[in-house]
Structure formats: C-alpha cells, structure tokens
Amino acid sequence: MSGPSTTGCVVADERRRPPAAVVFDALGSRYEAAFASSEAHRRSLRWLSERLPPGARVLDVGSGTGRPTAAALARQGHRVLGVDVSPVMVEIASGQVPEAEFECADIRTMPLEDGSFDAVCVYFSLLQMSRTEQAALVKRLARALRPGGLLALGTVPLDVENFDGVFMGQPVRVTSFAAQEVVAVVRAADLTVESQESVMFTPAHPDARPEPHLFVHARRPDGGTEATDGSRTE
Question: How many domains does the chain have?
C-alpha cells in the first residue's frame, strides 16, 4: 500500500474548510478516548469481521484516529483504506495503525470505483452532511461494494436538520434521520439490511450526555443470497 496522502486537505482560507475538518482537527485523540468504551461498536466490527473473506479490501469512511475500526480490521489481515477530511486525524491514524493506508480527502467528492471493496464502514461520519448528501453518499458507497459486499453503518438516529449544538466543547451543526429513515436510506441504496442494533451510549467526556446510537449492517445482493432482516434493541 502507498503511504498516506493529504492532498486536498490543506486549505488556506479557513472558511472554505469542511466543518467536520475543523471540529475533528480540534478534537484529535480526545475523540478516540471519549468513544473507546463502545461495546456496540465492537459488536458491529465482529459482525463484519465474521463475514469478510481473508485479505478483504475495506473502506473506512471517516476513519478518525484509526481506532478501533481500521486497527481491528488491519490486525486481522484485511487491506484497509481509511478516508478522513481532518488532516490531524489522518496523521494520528497513520502513526497508530501503520498496517493500514489513510488518505485525507472529502468522501463526497473522492472518486470511487464501482465494485472495488469487499466492505465499507461508515461509523458516525455522516452527521455533518445534509440529508441529500447522506443519501447520495450511501448510494455511492453501495455501488463501490462488490456483489455480496458488506456495509456497516453507525449513526445517531435523531430527527434533526441543521441543529446547532456543542460536541465535546466544539460547536457543530448536525443533521440526521430518525432510526427508521436511516434504515430506509440504506435500503434505497439497493442494499439488504441483515441486522440492526440500537443502544444508548455516554461518551467519556465531562460535557457528554447519553445519546442514542444505531448500527445497521447490510449486504449488496449478489443474486444468490436470500434476503434477511433482523433487529435487536437494548
């Protein structure tokens, strides 16, 4: 694999930087520490790893510090490409998970070849996009999966649009869907939802409050697998 790239991430005019880059540059490794205890995230990764072929090619969207997602999958021998809009996060991830490749880019405009990945992970990386952008991106990511490929998506399932709040001391503008609409977005991308899990999680941060987390696991049909749909709520 080639080394990390920061092409397209250095913007002289701060006002032109994607909002997510500003927030996560500021948070850095504190974000990893705040969410490290998420057992639901680890269960989602186990769901994925139990179904991946050896040496699978995996795209980690919004890869952050590289932990736990890229680290866990690379440790299992999979070929992981992490993409994050924050150059600080890419630098941290490259140091922490040298077995994976990381690129600093905006996934909304990054070229993606159809059928080029065995799996795509999208953990909490849609929340600062518009609803139109989120739905369009999930469709693009679905096309990037090979037939039979897997999608693991995590989000905060709130029915909010352009909500101004504070996240770990950083001002953020959040947009999301209610849980049933998140699942509908995944299905609208022609993916089969195989399981979902809803939990409440409190980040390890002084200003944090309990927040709902939804994990959705889906597969791109390959023509030979009967559709299934299950759910579990805690």
Answer: 1
